[in-house]
Amino acid sequence: MNISQLLHRTALAHGERSAVFLGAQPVCDYHTLAGRVARLAAHLRARCGVQPGDRVAIFSANCTQYLEALHAIHWAGAISVPVNYKLHSKELAYVLENSGARAVCVSPELRDSALDAGASPNALLVFGDTDWQAAVSDASPLVMEDRRPDDVASLFYTSGTTGRPKGVMQTHRNLLATTMAYFTDVDDVQAHDAMVYAAPMSHGAGLYNYAHMLRGARHVVPVSGGFDPAELVELAASVGHLSLFAAPTMVHRLVEHVRRVEADVEAFKTIVYGGGPMYVEDLRDALDTMGQKFVQIYGQGECPMTITALAREQIAETGHPRWAERIASVGKAHACVEVRVVDANDCEVPVGELGEVAVRGDAVMAGYWANESSTQSTLRGGWLHTGDVASMDADGFLTLRDRSKDVIISGGSNIYPREVEEVLLMHPQISEVAVVGQRDADWGEVVIAFLVAADGARPEDAELDALCLDHIARFKRPKAYRFVPALPKNSYGKVLKTELRDWLAKAD
Ligand code: AMP
Q1: Is 107 left (phi over 0), alpha (psi -120 to 50) or beta?
Q2: Which of 112, 267, 279, 332 yields a CA-CA distance of 20 to 30 A from 46?
């Protein structure tokens, strides 16, 4: 089934419902949205020769045309290639070349970067230009192409922190499983709900469009095109029933803003967080300030948004004897996948022991585009090997430690940075922290903490040492505390530990 059936069906049954908003302003209803999508699909075919199975890139920050382009590509039976709009044109060039993109849908301000990256002017569709406007209003609509469950719907390029980015093949089955998993394990969606795209639509947040299409809910693109806590609070008040996906760093900023201005948060429905570690102190803070609105997901491009979830009810169950451990976990397996923790020989490890997270099920990718060797090794034995280190408790709750490549090995002992980060964040004057390993002739690696001081007030090293010694073994205590104005993050809000390690290597 073509995943855009979800849009088509809602347009047939509830065409009059408002579909897309720019800020609080309605842009179009479902009938109009599906019509624009079908005409744009026809235009992709007529102007750029896009056939089923061809790849079409989308290179844009969040905007209302994003959803039109994405569904037009599906509608034409082609494969969408959402590209992080912050990529350099050389990086974009790699993605266009590797995917063999036949066309590129681009926002006007990125047109030149797309041309620099080698996109042919004839294969560029620029959001909102006269050609685009003519297509979405005048072209004769294309009948939606039929797709089989295992046909590829989207190629998602990994961030490539270890080598070249790889194109994750997400099939229509994967996207449907991810959509169903939203209902079973994350949140129910009503027609009056509004999904606001505050995080990049080229990443996980964009995938939540499908569940909201299916339910005929509203899709809100912030006027800023991104994450602005003040704008979100205003939007919630004006559109109501607002849900969003946010990286933990965004949740932290939203909560700080809400607390500072004493904002009314009644109109926020659900805040789904994930994509990186949510520290327990930050979650407690978020719950105190905004109440039970939070659901956590753990996923990766290779199993988008759908490995485990920590439900609102589990977060709310404060009286549970293992509540503290549970809120530090990423929850339990999503309904449509099996999750286990395995050793280097792919044998399941006993309860509570550390190993690599492996996943199997309908949400797991078909493989990497044109990269058989990586596909074979990552999907060996029919299980996705995530590269994440974790343990599973007797109740099935998974606690992530770190990406295996972030683990610090000092004097032969493994140190999981997250454990050290959790402790440092207990200090009231620390607002953000990232712990990495630095090469050391004696120890192999030593622990270095990068910290951001809350309100600029920097605590003494001795105080931080004492805090660590109170909570964790002496060998895990950082050898140095480096205060920085901000941590380097990618456009998805993830801390770039590779960059921190590079700083240290250069300083050496
Ligand atoms: P990406 O493929 O860019 O979405 O990155 C996926 C990686 O982000 C995962 O393999 C994890 O290492 C990390 N991640 C995702 N969700 C969580 C979460 N809820 N808690 C901690 N780390 C997470």
Answers
A1: beta
A2: 112
Question: Could you please report the per-residue DSSP string of 229-283?
Answer: HHHHHHHHHHH-SEEEEE-HHHHHHHHHHHHHHT---TTEEEEEEESSPPPHHHH
For residue 330 and ligand 1, the question of a CB distance below 6 A is answered with yes
Ligand 1 atom nearest 156 alpha carbon: 2
Distance 210 CA to ligand 1 centre (A): 21
Q: Which residue's CA lies nearest to atom 4 of ligand 1? A: 300
Query: What is the mean pLDDT of the segment spanning 15-42?
Result: 98
174 Cβ closer than 6 Å to some ligand 1 atom: no
The two three-digit tokens of residue 224, written as one number: 């800023």
Answer whether 300 contacts ligand 1 (Cβ < 6 A): yes
Q: Write the pLDDT tens digit of every residue in 434-489.
A: 999 999 888 889 999 999 999 878 999 999 999 999 998 888 999 999 999 999 98
* Surface-to-core class of residue 392, CB atoms within 10 Å of its CB (0-12 exposed, 13-18 middle, 19+ buried): buried
For the CA of 308, the nearest atom of ligand 1: 19
Question: Residues 379-425: pLDDT tens digits?
Answer: 999 999 999 999 999 999 999 988 878 989 888 888 989 989 999 99
* pLDDT tens digits along 327-337: 999 999 999 99
Which domains does the chain possess? Answer: 1-16+30-147 (3.40.50.980), 408-507 (3.30.300.30)
Residue among 438, 405, 406 nearest 419 (CA): 406
Instruction: Indicate if ligand 1 lies below 6 Å from the C-beta of 199.
Output: no
Q: 438 in ligand 1 pocket by Cβ < 6 Å?
A: no
The model's pTM: 0.90
CA–CA dist 401, 415 (Å, integer) = 10
Query: What average pLDDT does range 281-304 have in this prediction?
Result: 97
**How far, in Å, CA of 302 to CA of 383, rounded?**
11
The mean pLDDT value for 339-368 works out to 97
386 CB within 6 A, ligand 1 = yes
**Encoding tokens for residue 334?**
């999503």
Q: What is the arithmetic mean of pLDDT over 29-47?
A: 98
Is residue 296 lining ligand 1, measured as CB closer than 6 Å?
yes
Smallest CA-to-CA distance from 252 within 282, 294, 290 is with 282
C-alpha torsion sign, points 37, 39, 42, 43: negative
